[in-house]
């Protein structure tokens, strides 16, 4: 049995300060023959007991209930409610990204426990604004990212306020209402994979996506640090709510899953250590492999697109060699 076929236990290795159990797991939802028990277990572990998805869903409900301006107010453009949306998004992005950054990199509350890459953030590197990865990432995330996010927010909220966007409620369609929370992350993964493949077309990569990939050793602010053109594409999934029957809480939920989750997926750590035993899963080793090796894992573990199209890196040495061979072949052209 080859090393790639064996179960590699979580821990340190030659290439990583720490890695989870390998091979990397992806959703069994599309397995053939079907694996209903494994699929159910996948959804349960992604939602319970306390997970990112649950946190974003609860946040979406709270914001809709207490913070969103009345829909009647959003029927027409006004700096009042638009600036309120922008400020809220700015505060949430800063709270998530800077909070994680301080805990993991500023205060180093858990040292290097569960940290993937041995390297830290780049300093005195001319590729970044002000030669500093941290301030470069913050600038792109807040000035470009939050602004583009708010732009799409304004369009969809006006859609709900004026009846352009189909709206359901829990009482009108409880099954679809609940099912959407399970299906939307799958749709998000579908959108992200195909957008990401386009971004890796050499001409586009050099002019757009390279801004994001300068952060080889990622940290919370790296996730939402992108070229403005990439922000436009990345957040464009929000426009699906102009045609998809849904509730504003679903719209808020997927907005947080796109923007705020970029901070956690790029945290550079697999888990947060809270107290002595409380571990909250944050970082994505699946995506960390993409930042290390580039031409692999274009999607997320919610859909097996990479498995189907031959770009999946499961963390094994064999997968690393395959990706390196692919890159050598691409560069030879």
From TrEMBL:
It is found in: Membrane. The keyword Membrane applies. Pfam families: FA_hydroxylase. Keywords: Membrane, Oxidoreductase, Transmembrane, Transmembrane helix. The chain crosses the membrane at residues 50-68, 89-107, 138-163, 175-195, 234-261. Its EC number is 1.-.-.-. Residues 182-311 form the Fatty acid hydroxylase domain. GO terms for molecular function: oxidoreductase activity. PANTHER family: STEROL DESATURASE. This is Sterol desaturase family protein. It comes from Sulfitobacter sediminis. The lineage of its organism: Bacteria, Pseudomonadati, Pseudomonadota, Alphaproteobacteria, Rhodobacterales.
